[in-house]
Amino acid sequence: MSTPLRLDHNFFENEVRPHLGAVLLQTKLLRPDQLDQALDAQRASGKRLGETLIALGWLYEQDIARAIAVQNDLKYIDLEASSVDPRAAARLRPEVGQELCAIPVRYEGDGLLVAVGDPADAPLSTLVAETGCNVEVCVGDPSVILNAWRRLLRGERP
Length: 158
What we know:
alpha+beta, GMP Synthetase, Chain A, domain 3, 2 domains
């Protein structure tokens, strides 16, 4: 029985917006054989690669969020170490924030810093239209973003 051909992961290294798998290989969070297995599992499950890697137990949510930040040339924010300004968060309706997995963190300069779980799910144009502000996007852990909304909605300080 022959060994299936491995996808040439080096092919994707020089793309303008690298694939998440390429970022994870470059940062040494995954080996090529692990990426191949994860891509097979992803195709079978229909989930996103990051979700698949977390489900396999190979990476943590924070690893994926940091890689998505690198992939999109954005800052990563650890919302467990950086508090959310409730006045800033109030610029986005909670139902929209939860749907987009996005939360305004603080006012910065003439706009808002907004943490998103994945920029592909929270288009900048939508965030600007919904908040009525200039927006700078950064990437945070999706579960932490949603927990911050839950705390805000309960009247707690996120």
